[in-house]
Structure formats: structure tokens, C-alpha cells
Amino acid sequence: MQYEAIIGLETHVQVKTASKMFCGCATDFGAPPNTQVCPVCLGYPGSLPVMNEEAVRKTILAGLMLGCDIARLCKWDRKNYFYPDMPKNYQISQYDMPLCRGGGVDIKLKDSREVRIGLTRIHLEEDVAKNSHFETTSGVDFNRAGLPLMEVVSEPEIKSPDEAFAYLTALKEILVSGGVSDCDMEKGQLRCDCNVSVRPVGQKEFGAKIEIKNMNTISGVRRALAYEIPRQIVALEKGEKISQETRRWDDAPGVTSVMRTKEYAHDYRYFPEPDLMPVVVSDAMLAQIRELLPELPEAKRQRFMQQYGLPEYDAGVLVTDAALAAYYEQAVRWSKNPKSISNWVTTELLGKLAEAKLTIAECPIAPPQLAELVTLIDGGQISGKIGKDVFAEMFTTGKSPSAIVKDKSLAQVSDTAAIEAFVDEAIAKNPKSVMDFKAGNQAAINFLKGQVMKLSKGKVNPQMAGEILLRKLRGS
Amino acid sequence: MSEKTSDIDISYVAYLARLGLTEAEAAQFSAQLKDILKAVEKLNELDVTNVEPTAHAVPLTNVLRKDEVQPSIASADVMRNAPQQARGLFIVPKIVEQG
Q: Is the domain A416-475 a CATH 2.60.40.10 member?
């Protein structure tokens, strides 16, 4: 029998704000435990939450980027449970009136078909404390408690581990490009739970839903699903009954195991949060947020290909990072050669940055300087080869290329008489190659040309050197 | 809107609140909770057809603050009520998921 998998993802994304969701504590990652806490995020009785405007705005921005309907009126609710990560025994979340509904994430499948994975909703809640476990005790750090957390819930429209991977990658790219979140998985800024079931192809009803928790990377989600789907199919084929349960993914052995069965499923008893007033999203607020809408990565990729005549590969590399794309566009503004700028950015610049462990924001070469380097090469003032040396010098010193060329006398020699002198010298020093050329060995000219470049320390205009060399060899 | 007060599953309610009840307590609270629900049911006598549901008595919306960092409280104060602590962490009995 043929089976199909049905997957829905719940993705928690930390919204990028300076202060927490309901109090003014800082959100810096990596601070010593329990140093960014106060009575509100510690859940002390009598403390009152006050909502962070920026978290609301960024969640709306995410909703606009993902094509959601933005609720004009939304409210917050208490989700009740007992767990040491939340001492007030409820998490402030949104139950029946979330900020965003609908929308979708476009993904490209392996056969390059594009499909849209629909979204059910996006709501805004508070993150909980982080637990660490020791031999006989557990430790709780409340620095993370109260960070604004967006939950993006997909429709059960994902059909394979690869589609889940593509969905999360695209979602992450979009949220990063809009500055909604850094989505740094190592810092736990993007976390994902999967709901997955299988059913015989053609069957209408869904199979029993299994929830998988504890996946810390996008590739971990793919691996967990690649394990879980065949596991369920094998069980069904053996005639076993699959019942609703929550399973935990263990990355090292690469297996899922039961965490809790249905009878222990939480009963959250949501009710409206009396400490928070509803939020009304006005036309003015929406219009203001709409102005912040960045170009989506896919649209930017298309535009880079059209506007700058870049191949798909170049455009793809440049738009993966909004800051890199911005750097490129600034450089292009000063140049007439967008393709050459792209070559420098995607190869030399990214290489050097990786080597020096710097981000594009910390790049020592300003965009106009890179453009100037390309102009020097295109104008024949320096050769492409010397250009690489100048680039390396620019990267270490931050000096402008023209200053470096001047200081080190690297300017390309385009003066006919000077080039002729080098050509004459090369011919005089290599009589055998000259003979070979005259005997019909065309390749010998390349050797001679190399000698001219070497004698001039790479400074003569290679094209002119080639022309003069050919003229002299034929003429004499 | 005229649901009859159903029997209360007192042991489930006690479980949700993490309360251990004796049989006598269970019977006592069961009866009290029933009375409370009966009292609340009086609201069903009102016609609320044209009334929007709300969780608040005051028609106030958008109580928001700017995204500005305020000082947190001192570590010594944070830990003052901790039953146990180590390396800046609250130490609790080992957390084990049910299942």
C-alpha cells in the first residue's frame, strides 16, 4: 500500500526587540543567568505586564510579509500549566484572537515547481525560562522568560521532510530580511515543533497526529521527519494502531521516543488575560508598518537579475543576506559594471570576510571604494591581477584603491614606448621562443607575453603588450 | 444558553490545580463548586444578543510602552526567595516530563 505523510509545523521565533515583551528587562543573549530579570518576568504575584509596542509592530510586519490578514482587534489569554519554566503558572499567549491569520510561505520543490504552504495563524506570546539539568536537580535561568515570541502555525500542507526543510529555510530568510528576528538557531531564536501523521493514499481522514518536539536545527527537523514517517508506516503495515502522542527527537542516535501519551495531554484552560487590554490595529498603524516592508528575498533576486543583468547564481548569493545585498547596491551606484562588482563581492570579498571572521557590516572596504577599484581595472589603469593585490591591501588598511596604486606605483603602463621597451627586452632574452613562433608554434607567443608581464612586474597593459609583441614578431 | 450544570469531575479539577483532596474534601468542594456555577448561571437569564463579549469592564485599548530597556533588579534580590541556588541559577528538584 502507498502511504502519504501530512506535516504541519509550529515555529517559534524570537522577535528582535531591545526589551522584553511585558517588562523593560534587556534581551541580550549570553548574559549571566538571572541578571536580566524583574518581578514581572519572574512571575511575582502582584506584578503587572505592560506590552512592548515594538513586538506588536514586528509581528504585524511579519504578517504583512507573509501575506496574512492582520486582525483589527486582538487580545491576549492565559495558557495555564504547571512547570518550573513559568512560575506564575500561566503563559501569556493569544488563543482565539491572534494578530495574524492566513498567508503563506512560497517554497521551491526539487523539480523546481513552486508551491505555497499556507499559514493558519501567527500569534504573539512570551517565551519561558530556560532549564538545564544536572544529576539530581535542575537549574532555571529566567533571562529568556518574557522575551517576545512569535508562533507561526502552518496548515497541514507539508508533504515531505524536504518540503519542511524548504519551508523553514524560506520562512527564516523572510523574517531575517524584514529585521523581525535574527533567527539564530544556535541562540534558540527559531524553534520548531512538528505535527506529523501518515495515511494510505486516497484515504480522506487524517491518521493519528504525532507531535515531535526538541528539534534545534532546520536540518534536525528534516532528519526527525525522515525517521518518523517510515516509523509510522512500518507500524501501520504491521497492523499496529497509532495513537496521538508527543515524541521527543534525540539528535545523536537519530530517533524519536515517546514523551507523553494522550491521557497526559495538557489541558491549558485558556481564558482572557485580565491584566492586558486588547490591541486595536488602526489604518494609520498599518500604513506606518507597511512602509517598513522590505523587498522579499525572491523579489529581490528577480530584480537583481533584471536590473543589474546578473546570472541567477550571483543574484541568489547576494540576496541571502539583506546587508550584503545593500552593500552590493551601494557599490553599484558608483560603478558602470554591476557584473564585475558582483564578482568581487561574491568571491574575493566574501572570502576575505570569512577568513577574517567579519560580518559585512564590519567590512573594512566601503562600497564606493570597491566600485573605484573596478573602475580602475575597467579603465585600464591597473590590471586585473594587480587589482587583487590592491584589494588585499584595501582590506587590511581600509585605504582607497587609487591611494594604494599611487603609493606603490602599481599603475598599469599603457604608454606604447614603455611597453615596447619591455617587449624588446623579452624578445632579446628569449631567441628560442622567437624562433619557435616564427616556425609556426603559435603558443610560443603566450610564453613571450608572460615574460613581458614578468619583466614589467605585471604592470603593463596585457592587451597592448600582446598587440605590440605580435606586431614586432611579425614585422621583424 | 441554558446548559444544565453538569456534574463536576472533582478529581480532575483537583489534578489540574495539583491539589490532593481527601474524600470528605472532595465531596465538600464538589457541592460548593456546583453552587458557584449555579450562581453564575443566573447570568443566562440576561438577554445579551446585542452585546459584544469582552474580558474587561473598561473600554480601553492599546496600552503599550516603547521598546526601552529598564534596569533589572540586583542579583542578590533576585535570589532572595530561591529555595536553592547555584551558579546564578534557581535550583529545583529534577524536572522530569510525564509520559
A: no
